[in-house]
């Protein structure tokens, strides 16, 4: 009998647990569910929990999510964007079938005194062009972590991002911050359906990273992403710009938290991002003045 791989053993154990707990119902869902493949679009409700708040609102400010997959307990403030599993971070694991490490990335390609600007939840027809203009002004390349339906709805914007030399990142179909608690089949469709939407919108330009919403990484969704050419991408500095805390607060957060590492998280979707645009106008020249170089996340 063929010996099971570690990844296969995890899937088998999960299915067996589901059978024990639910008398077979959950196992059926595990093996066959696909609740997200044709989601209606971004319902990015930033959620709140005691002591910490997260979540993402739709591009229409104040609109709460009614999407079934939306989480009420995600934590965008996790410093490493990890799922907390023992092998989620640390020394690079051997690359998977696509030659991409499954370990969550918190480094830049350049190393040294460098920083990576990453921008989540778009593309937005309102705010992404403004952010692109600031990036162009300071000759900075960024990584855009896109919601699949947002990319599908704004293919011209996706192409503009690629043409400007920025990179693409998969931020799932429905921004479900509880996807780490869902069946593997569901996680797979969230990751792979979004990848296809983004690459189709980009006329085939490759998505090089995967970022789980709210840091909801699992060994399974990291394996799925890496097997399809996408490096799991964490973050070190969470600006919490989605809260609209004020431009000065966003700027202060970045300056204080850069000691945590080089990958900085901003948003271009999910609401009014005027403060993000203003903060980038201050931060990009300041970072250059401090001797930082701008680099993409490592792959």
Description:
The N terminus is likely disordered. The two termini are 36 Å apart. Strands 3, 4, 5, 6, 7, 8, 9 and 10 form an eight-stranded parallel β-sheet that branches. A two-stranded antiparallel sheet has the order 1-2. With 299 residues, it is α/β, with parallel strands linked by helices. Helix content is 35%, strand content 14%. Helix 1 runs antiparallel to helix 2 and helix 6 runs parallel beside helix 7. The chain has nine helices and ten strands. Strand 3, helix 3 and strand 4 form a beta-alpha-beta unit. The radius of gyration is 18 Å and the shape is globular.
Task: Determine the strand fraction and express it as a percent band.
Answer: 5-15%
Number of helical stretches of at least 4 residues: 9
How big is the Rg? 18 Å
Query: Which class best fits the helix and strand makeup?
Result: alpha/beta
Q: In percent, how helical is the residue content?
A: 25-40%
Low-confidence stretches: 1-43, 45-93
- Oligomer status: single chain
Query: Sheet with the most strands?
Result: 8 strands, parallel
**Mean pLDDT across residues:** 77
Shape: globular
Total beta strand runs? 10
Head-to-tail CA distance between termini: 36 Å
Order of helices and strands: HHEEEHEHHEHEHEEHEHE
Summary, kept brief:
The protein is of the alpha/beta class and 299 residues long. The protein contains nine helices and ten strands.
Give the arrangement of secondary structure elements.
Blueprint: H1 6-22, H2 25-32, E1 46-49, E2 52-55, E3 114-122, H3 128-137, E4 142-146, H4 148-153, H5 155-163, E5 167-170, H6 184-201, E6 207-210, H7 219-227, E7 231-232, E8 237-238, H8 247-257, E9 263-267, H9 274-289, E10 293-294
Parallel strand pairs: 3-4, 3-9, 3-10, 4-5, 5-6, 6-7, 8-9
Antiparallel strand pairs: 1-2
Helix pairs in contact: 1-2, 3-9, 6-7, 8-9
């Amino acid at each position: 009998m063929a010996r099971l791989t570690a990844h296969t053993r995890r899937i088998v154990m999960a299915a067996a647990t589901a059978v024990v707990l639910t008398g077979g119902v959950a196992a059926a869902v595990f093996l066959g569910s696909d609740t997200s493949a044709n989601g209606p679009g971004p319902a990015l409700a930033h959620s709140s929990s005691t002591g910490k708040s997260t979540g993402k609102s739709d591009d229409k400010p104040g609109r709460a999510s009614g999407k079934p997959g939306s989480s009420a307990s995600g934590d965008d403030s996790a410093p490493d964007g990890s799922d907390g599993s023992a092998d989620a971070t640390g020394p690079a694991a051997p690359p998977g079938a696509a030659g991409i490490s499954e370990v969550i990335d918190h480094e830049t390609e350049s190393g040294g005194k460098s920083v990576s600007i990453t921008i989540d939840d778009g593309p937005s027809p309102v705010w992404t062009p403004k952010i692109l203009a600031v990036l162009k002004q300071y000759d900075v390349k960024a990584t855009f972590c896109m919601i699949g339906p947002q990319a599908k709805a704004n293919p011209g914007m996706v192409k503009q991002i690629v043409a400007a030399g920025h990179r693409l990142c998969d931020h799932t179909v429905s921004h479900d911050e509880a996807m780490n608690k869902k069946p593997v089949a569901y996680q797979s469709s969230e990751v792979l359906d979004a990848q296809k939407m983004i690459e189709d919108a980009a006329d085939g330009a490759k998505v090089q990273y995967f970022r789980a919403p709210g840091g909801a990484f699992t060994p399974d969704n990291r394996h799925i992403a890496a097997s399809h050419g996408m490096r799991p991408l964490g973050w070190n500095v969470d600006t919490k710009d989605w809260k609209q805390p004020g431009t000065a607060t966003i700027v202060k957060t970045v300056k204080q938290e850069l000691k945590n590492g080089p990958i900085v998280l901003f948003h271009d979707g999910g609401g009014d991002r005027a403060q993000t645009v203003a903060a980038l106008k201050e931060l990009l020249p300041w970072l250059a003045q401090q001797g930082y170089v701008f680099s993409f996340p490592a792959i």
